[in-house]
Amino acid sequence: MIVVAGSINLDLVAYVDRLPRGGETLAGRTFSASPGGKGANQALAARRAGAAVALVGAVGDDAFAGPALALLRRDGVDLANVRVAPEATGVALIHVDAAGENAITVVAGANATHVAGDLPAARLRARDTLVMPLEIPAATVAALALRARSAKMRVVLNAAPAAPVPAATLACVDVLVVNEIEARALAQAHGMPDAPDAFCRAAAGRFGGAVVVTLGANGACAAHRGEALALRAPAVDVVDTVGAGDALIGALAAALDRGAALSDALREGLAAGSLACTRQGAQPSLPWRDEIAALAATI
Hints:
Blueprint: E1 2-5, E2 9-15, E3 30-36, H1 38-48, E4 53-60, H2 65-74, E5 78-85, E6 90-96, E7 102-107, E8 129-133, H3 138-150, E9 154-158, H4 167-170, E10 175-179, H5 180-190, H6 196-207, E11 210-214, E12 220-224, E13 227-231, H7 244-257, H8 262-276, H9 289-296
Helix pairs in contact: 1-7, 7-8, 8-9
């Protein structure tokens, strides 16, 4: 079982020829609104990768809440611990250019009300997996990591977006997943080398868990218990990179939760992230287990 404690948003996406510069107004090509938020995305990604998943989070009492939860509800994610907050449902304002690159502004809304008590003790079960991104308050992440470690859960932390993470929290993490920007921020904060492979080795050695740095089209590197790993991502025709990282983390967590080795789980994560790049949107682009397995076999 995977429990995701994280953000729930509605993504408002403008497709443009190029990303706007400061003070510039551009005419967009098309617009879409679709469910998103790192927590919700990772929950749905893990569910589509074959795991049983519960999401813990908050939405507003507004018109955005229903659409934000629609795909999660349709695909069987347990939403019993998603509460209604007085603040508005979180939103992400996204520009996607002709090459599939994106620029994103996130307004937390109800996600900022997330507290450790939102995760009931009954959800803290040994050998289950807790997944957390950093779009909820830092104090909540720290408290949940400690509670989950005490309950002998596997803790997967996606330290995104880049933000300070105390050493005490990192010491509770079994699998840390970051991109190059997030790795650099953690390296600087904790006095470690910031080259991706060196960071993996240093952070794994210092904090004891596995460390994965994603490298976009170049795949990912990882380190765990003195062993290093580097895998390339499969080549795909990129349409939209929104949600690719969340697809990777959800599939990685699903594989680990069913007992896969880190190397095999990372292959599935890379396959899921690559497949998500071939479709538009965050949650609508998330792939299913059969197609993940087929592409992972080529890595």
